[in-house]
């Protein structure tokens, strides 16, 4: 794959840009040749020049989509496979009556989900009553509603969440300033809920949150991430700037209010009454009710109530990632959390500059493309 593309993606190669003089970056006292940014800019310029709008009747739309990746063989178009781009192109074709080409900012792997992946598409609105007559472009809200109508008839595991018009030289991939990924880990011996199937990585052992957070500090910043790139990675440079990497414990989902939360909500809504009056008005707020709770923890959940797993979310943010970089990072952080690796081991793995030094890669099911950031034009 070409440089500075999110590399949590399908294995599709692209023509390389002509070689250009490289900058020399100095990291930890060592010199690295890093022409990634220059190559990206050259690729972007050539692509835009090649695709300058020959037809002023075309309207380019920027389309944000969410999807559950379980039943997709990745985002990029592939023959004889159900893909994100393939399903989206089919929905657009049914809407406008002619084929379109979709270009994604980030081409996620099979099984990887997206809270917001961004694509662009060029549409020419032709009258269905008078073939050949070009009509004014559809409003973004019309595009969103119509495409979602057809998506819901094709599995219902993808949805358009936002649409806007952009200039024809605005490219979803090359104009992206940064990408944010989330990775969900659910821990504990309890089997995952049916509602969490293929939505997170189940880790039976408990994880040490503080140790994982310390390991993140070693990995944040500009490094040679050769130890965190798949063998099949086609990026010219292994050097990336990881702007953010952290681990947070959050509530597991789907989340419903506990007895304590419902009690607190009730008290907030009825704060004009005294505690004794509330107990008289609502028998649910009683002494026996509170005996089920110690602080915010439910001591006795009763028969038929599932025990919840602890949920940890790894956040990784950068302009671009190497192929499988996020999942390899998560694999190492999980090993630190479980005690299989120490924090100093992470520094050793990073300096080894070979993927064989890293821990096994985290599975695709826990990875979510969370957000793609742009500097969007204000005049369209």
UniProtKB/TrEMBL annotation:
Reaction(s) this enzyme catalyzes, per UniProt: uridine(38/39/40) in tRNA = pseudouridine(38/39/40) in tRNA
Similarity comment text for this entry: Belongs to the tRNA pseudouridine synthase TruA family.
EC number: 5.4.99.12
The protein's name in its UniProt record: tRNA pseudouridine synthase
One Pfam family named in its UniProt record: PseudoU_synth_1
GO biological process: tRNA pseudouridine synthesis
Annotated GO MF terms: RNA binding; tRNA pseudouridine(38-40) synthase activity
Source taxonomy: Eukaryota, Viridiplantae, Streptophyta, Embryophyta, Tracheophyta
Chain ranges of the Pseudouridine synthase I TruA alpha/beta domain: 64-174, 215-375
Region (Disordered): 1-42
Ranges of compositional bias, category Acidic residues: 31-42
SUPFAM superfamilies in the record: Pseudouridine synthase (SSF55120)
Keywords: Isomerase, tRNA processing
Broad enzyme group: isomerase
Natural source organism: Fraxinus pennsylvanica
């Amino acid at each position: 794959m070409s440089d500075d593309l999110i590399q949590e993606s399908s294995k599709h190669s692209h023509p390389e840009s002509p070689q250009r003089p490289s900058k020399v970056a100095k990291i930890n006292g060592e010199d690295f040749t890093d022409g990634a940014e220059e190559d990206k800019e050259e690729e972007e310029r050539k692509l835009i020049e090649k695709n300058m709008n020959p037809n002023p009747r075309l309207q380019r739309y920027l389309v944000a989509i969410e999807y559950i990746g379980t039943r997709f063989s990745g985002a990029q178009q592939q023959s004889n496979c159900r893909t994100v781009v393939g399903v989206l192109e089919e929905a657009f074709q049914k809407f406008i009556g002619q084929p379109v080409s979709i270009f994604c900012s980030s081409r996620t792997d099979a099984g990887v989900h997206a809270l917001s992946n961004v694509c662009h598409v060029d549409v020419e609105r032709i009258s269905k009553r008078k073939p050949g007559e070009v009509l004014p472009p559809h409003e973004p809200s019309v595009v969103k509603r119509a495409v979602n109508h057809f998506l819901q008839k094709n599995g219902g595991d993808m949805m358009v969440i936002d649409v806007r018009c952009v200039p024809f030289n605005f490219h979803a991939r090359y104009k992206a300033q940064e990408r944010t990924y989330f990775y969900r880990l659910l821990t504990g011996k309890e089997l995952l809920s049916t509602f969490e199937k293929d939505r997170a990585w189940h880790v039976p052992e408990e994880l040490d949150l503080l140790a994982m957070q310390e390991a993140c500090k070693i990995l944040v910043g500009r490094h040679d991430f050769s130890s965190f790139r798949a063998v099949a990675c086609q990026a010219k440079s292994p050097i990336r700037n990881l702007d953010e990497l952290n681990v947070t414990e959050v509530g597991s989902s789907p989340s419903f209010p506990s007895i304590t939360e419902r009690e607190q909500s009730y008290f907030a809504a009825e704060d004009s009454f005294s505690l004794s009056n509330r107990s008289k008005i609502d028998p649910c707020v009683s002494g026996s009710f509170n005996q089920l709770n110690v602080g915010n923890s439910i001591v006795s959940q009763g028969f038929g109530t599932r025990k919840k797993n602890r949920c940890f979310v790894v956040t990784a943010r950068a302009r671009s990632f190497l192929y499988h970089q996020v999942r390899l990072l998560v694999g190492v952080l999980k090993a630190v959390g479980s005690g299989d690796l120490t924090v100093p081991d992470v520094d050793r793995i990073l300096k080894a500059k070979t993927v064989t030094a890293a821990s096994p890669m985290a599975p695709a099911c826990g990875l979510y493309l969370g957000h793609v950031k742009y500097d969007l034009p204000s005049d369209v």
